[in-house]
Amino acid sequence: MTFVVTSNCSGCRFTDCVAVCPVDCFHGDQAMLYINPEVCIDCGACVPECPVDAIFDEGSVPEDLQIWLSINEERVRQLPVVNARETPLLSAEETARRLGFR
Ligand code: SF4
Ligand code: F3S
To answer: What is the pLDDT of residue 49?
Structure first.
């Protein structure tokens, strides 16, 4: 089992999730973060931290977001670990508003 980051993270990159993760399983590009399924210990701590509800347990990913399971798995192989909180993207607040979280 693992947890997975989905599309709501794109354009936000709040990184509150990283601050609570006990292992280094988040990787990131310029747009968003991804979870390494081989490192995630399924603690669930990251889920309530995300202001835009981007993270799901792999068993609870909505049908229209299932593609993100394989995207996370593939992207982490090519991207550096992000293990400290960073400044959210300039577009973060606007994206969160558009998604209905503000
Ligand atoms: Fe990290 Fe736990 Fe979230 Fe997995 S479930 S990404 S180990 S905080
Ligand atoms: Fe993305 Fe939410 Fe983490 S926006 S960086 S999954 S806190």
So the answer is: 98
pTM for the whole structure: 0.98
Closest listed ligand to the CA of 91? 2
Neighbours of 74 (CB within 10 A): 11
Distance 23 CA to ligand 1 centre (A): 7
Residue 34 Cα to ligand 2 midpoint, Å, equals 9
User: pLDDT, tens digit, for every residue of 54-83?
Assistant: 999 999 999 999 999 999 999 999 999 999
Which domains are present in the chain?
3-86 (3.30.70.20)
Check: CB of residue 57 under 8 Å from CB of residue 66. Answer: no
Report the C-alpha gap between 7 and 22 in whole angstroms.
Answer: 23
Alpha carbon separation from 77 to 15, 34, 45, 63 (Å, rounded): 19, 10, 23, 24
Residues of the chain falling short of pLDDT 50: none
Give the model's pLDDT for residue 19.
Answer: 97
